[in-house]
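Q: I have two molecules that I believe assemble together. Could you output structure tokens for the complex as a whole instead of separate predictions?
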Amino acid sequence: MAKNTAASRRRKTIWINVSFQSAAFVLALLLTTVMLLAVGAPPFQAYRSILVGAFGSVGDIFDTLIAWAPLLLTTMGVLITFSAGLWNIGIEGQVTLGAIFTTWILRLLQESGLPPWLIIVLGILAGIVGGALWASLAGVLKTFGGVNEIFGGLGLNFVATALTLWLIFGPWKRPGTGSMSGTLPFPEELWLPAIPGFRLSPWALVLSFIAVVVVYFLLRGTHFGLRLKAVGKNMRAAYLLGVPTWQHMLASFLLCGVFAGLAGALQVTAVYHRLIPSISSNYGFTGLLVAMLVNFHALWAVPVALFFAALNIGSVHLPIVLKLDSSLSGVLQGLLVLLVLMVEGARQRLMSRKIIPAEPASGEEVQS
Amino acid sequence: MRNTLFRFALLALVSVMLLTACGQATAVPTEAVVEPETTEPEVVEPEATEPPEAEEFVFGMLMVGPYNDHGWSQAHYDAGLYVEENLPGARMIYVDKVNPADRPGTTPAQLAEDLVAQGAQLVIFNSDDMKDSATEFAQANPDVYVIMASGDQVWADGNAYIPMDNMVNIMGRMEYGKMIAGCAAALTTQTGQIGYLGPLINDETRRLAASAYLGAEYCWTEYLGNDPADLVFKVTWIGFWFNIPGVTADPTQVADDFFNTGFDVVISGIDTTEALTEAVRLRDAGQEVWAIPYDYEGACEGADSVCLGVPYFNWGPAYLETIMAARDGTYASNFQWNAPDWADINNPDTSAVGFLSGPALGGEAAGLLDQFIAELAGGLNLWTGPINLQDGAPYLADGEVATDLQVWYLPQLLEGMEGQSVSE
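A: Yes, here they are, computed for all two components at once.
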């Protein structure tokens, strides 16, 4: 009987959560629509244009998936640090370092005579190592230096960007001159294989899906995930209960860096095929937004990241078709995150007043 | 409680930062959204559904920055409008902010294909960033005409030659604009110290800074009768085309350092107007300083008290000619490095490069500057030896005139210039 009541209460809470999140989404859409109407732009044509731009043809769908894969990876990364109660803002730099390490290995080995597939694998592994090392720097600053991870991460992001520019215009510059185009593109055999006739590499998708599965089970089904959440919820209590807190924090940084570095490696091997100045493409920051929206649920990141990727790719059609500024997608993304956070705050406030049966946001996962 | 407050403050900071990142990724949404262009009813493009008076020719344009940036991108956008006005049936479609930060996961080649899917028969790539993509796109789409502005891929004599029948490279000879800017600076400076606010170091930026120096040195010695040794010309590179906090040198700070260490004229080589803004601020505080912006015809607006003039690109005529050739079937791959129209360098229909004198240029200096422009028009070539490179190595022997290749691929700054020559 008690079990049934608990299950029913849990179902009710889930529905309430979904209702609140949906309300935030509708509100964001409404506000964007009002904004479009205020400037005399046709909102439905604009939304249609984004939709067609993202899913209008096989090529468009594949382009959306190209953006989706690294976004999923960065989201998975920050979900791990979020679980440990850490704001890993430095993920942008970790993506960048992943790309730098991959580029370094590909440059080093491209004339080595090794089989291309091996060079690609080594390059991707190097990217993972690069991302993890850079993340561990932020972790060490946090755990041993007492530097808040937000400020440490921000500083490391700047260093990573400066390092990229220095490499592109310095030691790795093209023959004769440095170029904003980046380093010299790698020969085609060092590109991650793509679907014939398209740019999408199925390998990038496969690796991203593996990441989702790994993070899902890591956070839901392992002691490590449970302890990570314990550290995130209440570090002192976790410590008193015997959880080695700093080790878990550092490990969460490292794991996040692994996924970020992989994203960077894919940017080099599957998308740009060279190192470019903005190689991270802001996927780290966008991943943070997605992670905030999905509230620890790795599986929910799949559709939400797809939605964000579709907005980015589809919004390209706004200036082409409607002469509208493509900033609209950014406005919509920003509003969405802001409203979801606000609505979540309102929901928690209501719960604390016992108007709605209380249950921690991520409680179901902690229990499992 | 303190902990809660701290967490709240951090959350607020992070939210603001992320939203700013979002905004950055999509560049100034509020300003962009209220732009009159976006509110005009032509967003539904009625003309596209009406029977065209002339045969329609759609051309696409990829711009690296916002189309209304009052700089490099807007100069191209305006040129597109110029083509629309002057070629019956021509219609421009465009994507702006084409860079990986603003358009994650996309490449210029991919966006060019989007433009083609919307009917573009010719695509303009407008930035050095897009060089590889332009090549990739042109090779993959031999039926689509391509203009790569500022590139040198189809320059048969160039270092990066790749034959492509469907590509034209177009660049203006801004070297002349910079020479005129350098001359204006030399004719105005009271301290004999001119600062050059450089972006990043590459062949293009090096030769433009060197051109400004050559113009300054010529006017300093020939018109003012001064000793060249008394002219200080210093280049400070910020590391990028615009300020990236924490990454590049802050151009405001660099301009400020120039002005506060005796340099009373700063020539800008970057895409944004920090030198001009800083000069206005110091002028309002009573300091006698001047500045020269870059790229866009209207850049002096709002800085009457300090602006000596602006060297600018006028892409319209070359775009018109190439697009017309594409439409008429006479298109042929070629490399264009277009000089100003010396009959009138500010003629919007004929001159690829112009210089608009600013309100702060003194009467006497303005007269001498006109004289300098007339000399250039008469054949004066400042790329004539003897000229040494910055490290003292001979660049041009006495009387030797630099070839286009020597100018385009200038390996160092010139002797007499202070500042870094190559990235290290």
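A: One point stands out. The CA atoms of residues 383 and 403 of chain B lie 9 Å apart.
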